[in-house]
Specification:
Blueprint lengths: L1 E4 L8 E4 L8 H15 L3 H11 L12 H9 L5 H16 L2
Antiparallel strand pairs: 1-2
Amino acid sequence: MLITAQEERNDDEFRFEEPGPETVPQDFFDRMSAKLSASAGPMAPLILRDHIALLGESRAAFPKNRLKELFERVSQEILDDRLRNDFCRSMRGDLTSL
């Protein structure tokens, strides 16, 4: 369950966001991070975390309809063309199974 501060006068109030059926499962991000590590190195979890945040989303409730955008951003962090292609190829099955 993700807790986010409401944008109201009282910052002490919180609302709870339940991941819905149209959110990306957490194990997907684990697989994506592992595959990204093979291509981009040990900073992969931070790269993934930062791009999720730059999209204004959270890992706990990341919407499936923004996954393509995240994937494109993250893959651009892989500077070597061969490694980027390997990453894209290895993620293809994971992306289509969602």
